[in-house]
């Protein structure tokens, strides 16, 4: 279900916005809710129309549910509805109309690289959980600068960018700080990672419960797992960059508290590897 948080402050420079309350039983558009009075909010950053943002009012000739001049306006969740030339969130009411912090009307596409390895003991055996006796998986997590929450180092797909490229680019930017590397260094890291990133497994594609979602703009993602069994990261040091403040290998378990829908994605990865959860 869409985010129901009463407060909406993503980004330290944003003023906190109070969503109008939508109880779980009123989220679906199929339920009559005559008193629904969503607040209207689009961040000043978005209204300045940076290159990643749509026009203030959607252009009348926008190709909804289609590729639109390189911008992918298709949803993973099927065809979304348009009302008065504005897309309607397929998962229901959020308490906000407008775009909030999101650039695109309708779906905003992201990709989430979930890089994993087994946790090792000093003697070279795989570490097991004391209770479940299952092996412990670790993943590369970043701490987001906007909300302070731990998260997968994912990010937005650039228009026309292949998902495989976005996955690797975002991992390198947020977990290896590639934005501050020389072109030559960046190329070296790209090569080091090329085996790992060419053997991914799709974990999920579709709508995600992101705190930025509104009734007219929402996040969708494609998440891939890249599992390293070769000890590759013995020679690669993690280094937070871009919208990540910190980066770490984190043990996977059901105790994790993560941003947006990321815990669900990580759970799927744990199940895939029959790891401790
Ligand atoms: C989440 O937003 C997605 O799962 C992805 O991790 C992230 C992309 O947004 P930015 O990290 O670019 O803000 O819902
Ligand atoms: Mg990023
Ligand atoms: Mg990001």
From TrEMBL:
This is Nudix hydrolase domain-containing protein. It comes from Brachionus calyciflorus. GO terms for molecular function: ADP-ribose diphosphatase activity. The lineage of its organism: Eukaryota, Metazoa, Spiralia, Gnathifera, Rotifera. Residues 118-272 form the Nudix hydrolase domain.
